[in-house]
Amino acid sequence: MRQITTGFALLLLIMLAFTTVQALDQKEIELQAFRSATDAAPNIGPVVKSNPVDDQWDLFYSFNAGLAAPDNQLLGAEFAQDWFFATGGGNAGEPNYLYKFDRDGVLVTAIAQWSSAGWGWRDLAYDGAYLYGSDDLTVDAFDLDGNPVSAMNISGPVSPCRALAYDPVTDHFWTASFSSPLYEFDRAGNVIWSGSSTLAGVYGAAWDGAAPDGPWLWLHDQSGTPSTTFHQFDPINYVMTGFSYTVPLLPGSTDQMAGGAFFTDEYDAGWHLLGGMTQGTPDDQIFLLEMYVAGDPLAPAAPTNFTVTPDAGGALSIDLAWDLPTTTISGEPISLYPITSVEVMRDGVPHASLAATATSYADAVPAAGSYDYSVYCVNSYGNGIPANGSGWAGLDVPAGVENLTGQGVGTDLVAELTWDNPTMGMHGGYFPAGSIDGYTINRYGASTATFDLAGLNTSYTDDTIPLQGWYYYGVIPYNASGDGPEMMTDEFYVGPPAFEEIPYDWIEINPSHPDFDYPGTNSGIVSDDQNVGPFDIGMNFPWYGGVYHSSIRLCSNGWASFTSTSTTYSNAAIPSTGNPNDLVAPYWDDMNPSSTNYGSVWYYADPAGQFFVAEWDSMNHYGSSYTGDYFTFELILYPDGTIDYMYRAIEEGTVTPFPSATVGIENADGTVGVQITYNGSGPIEPDDEMGIRIYPVFIPEMPDLELSLVPVVQPIQIPAVGGSFDFYAFVGNNETYNVEVGAWLEYVDPLGMTSDPLMGPATINLEASATTGWYRTQNVPGTAIAGVYEYVANLGIYPNDVWYTDSFDFEKMTTGDGLWVDNWDNYGDPFGIEEIAVTEAVPMEYALHAAYPNPFNPTSTISYALPQAGKVSLTVYDLQGCKVAELIDGYRDAGLHEVVFDGTGLASGVYIYSLQAGDFSANGKMVMMK
Q: What is the CATH number of domain 402-494?
């Protein structure tokens, strides 16, 4: 909590004769009322400042940012180091932009936003070193040139993070989004406080640490007339004060709504200014409002022509130079109020006190780095306005690498990066050629990692990628002075292709065809632009974002969706945020099944859950007069996430242009997808008797689970000869779908060493919205060293990704008698549907081994060998051929595998277990005896 001193807040009314100094002991609402009553221009004041009309809330400066950009979808605003910054939506195009203007409102550059979604960064904040943009669930950090500083990114508390402000006292951030709660949070993303702002349209926020009665947090809200109102929040007592100020229409605007907000004392040395963005008509504008005079009016004005010049040869010295001010802050001749000393501040700390006539200073700095300086003059009325500047002394850190590219190598799980090294330092300081000691390389995407590359290089090969998928990389050059900025590659695909052409293998499900394979069901689609469903697909189909789907909807226009009820006929490129999303599009085009004798849509779900087929049979293109078999195609879903498209007939009709279809898939919000073709532009174009396969896009995300490990008796004390203890393990699945997750048990011994798994690693299947429990026993051998052990249960992906963990302690004693125990056996309720045996060698051939025990009651273990990774199916049937259990259905790594079959609830008798792995198949028998 900040400590503040309550007392009198002084308000100076600067008149030509300097006649009135009024003291008030109330908060800002009373100050504002007094100012409004005495100010000659209490609302919008003149742009050219002239006492006595300058007072709080007068307009200090504004400019037409929408016209300068040009972009009239501007959102956030900030002022930092003599530059205005604004975020913009690019006039509804892509990408979103960060705009940089000089202090006169002239556009300097437009920078494509490097990491943002939807509207991109809504508001901006500045911490004195970096800018921060409020994204969906992230606060993104970047330097003043727009280069990402990913290490400084912060997880936000609300989606989207909209209004954004920075408090330099606590190093905390504040955010809100329209009517959402107001949040205070730290750099680790921890919420310090949250509560209602009572407002409905908060878009911007600004931290005001200069108020004599503050600090305040100003919330720029889309309320009032016009809809640009600042509301005052007390961040010490966490309450709205009730004071607000509505910004009148800016010059040239006929209407305006609140955008971002900021507070600055950098634009003008004599004023603390509150700024913001108006989303206006006809254009968006950035404005500055007068808030508080920055010093006594008779104190010296700021030194002029202030320069900060580091030694050009890299020595640890910086030369400062300036001209003394000729007036006071209020414009009186300085000769009437003489300067008594000149003060130098370095990095916010008093550093040197100089004679009244000093106009230069040579500073020796302790180490290479960036140094901030302020120089101000002092007279009998106090400290004057400072002149500020910064410079880098010594060897500069590298600027960002240039021309950075990344690409996959063939179909291997390998990525290659290339770049050109910078020829200058990040801060424009001393940087001789080759001043790079190495690089930090960050891998982002399907599997993240960080690497260190020592020495001067222009390329890097990453051959440690475990999963195929989409990746992008960041490269950070470094030297003895520190890290340069992180530059990012574009996203690219690594590994086997996202899709490829495969042999044509049609599955006929329309029973009216004489050669049908399976008896499909008519979807009921009979008219143009019709969407029906959902239909059960007989499996949990793995999809983008770690989501599983068990049903699908079908549309007459050649596409299906797991969720969308849209009937969109006009095909679009993939990805696209417009409907339909969650898209599976074998041939998305404008089709008309209502044409006479043409068009029906069928579906079939395999009872064993091995595949699902949807067939569009003889679909006629809307408006076509062609009477042949126009479009016949199908989609096939497999439980591992593979999707096949089969094309029996793709016939050109009378509608032009042809082809005019979209083929591919797309995620739930239309931000990611796989496009095979769009209006004939793709690498593969569907044709008669062709097959296309799209490989799985599912990447597991950490599910919402709860893990509890509970000993039956405590304390647990194991005698010297060894012994055992009993425990319960409970796992709660808070998701609305079934979850498969890895589980294993281990211990940490008294020396801090972690054991190999005592149980597992096993894959456990958790039912949706349910808690599963196990009762098990753990042996502890007599050979175990004495001391306190930690017994640990883990959920995640073995061995490195631990999502959830719980533990308890047990003690191995140095005394105690009993039967000798010689193992770490763990036994009890079957813990997993699959337990993977750790072996040194990969099997040479496929094998299905005998179940054990056999006969069994109620569990038996089935083991099998895979010489290579591939799709595996292991199913148990009774003697009538009815499936009683599906133990495995998906891809498995090469190696020896074990699966526990639990026959609880089954009748005594003979059961058949059947393995299918690639082209290998085998069966075995086991007997259940009760």
A: 2.60.40.10
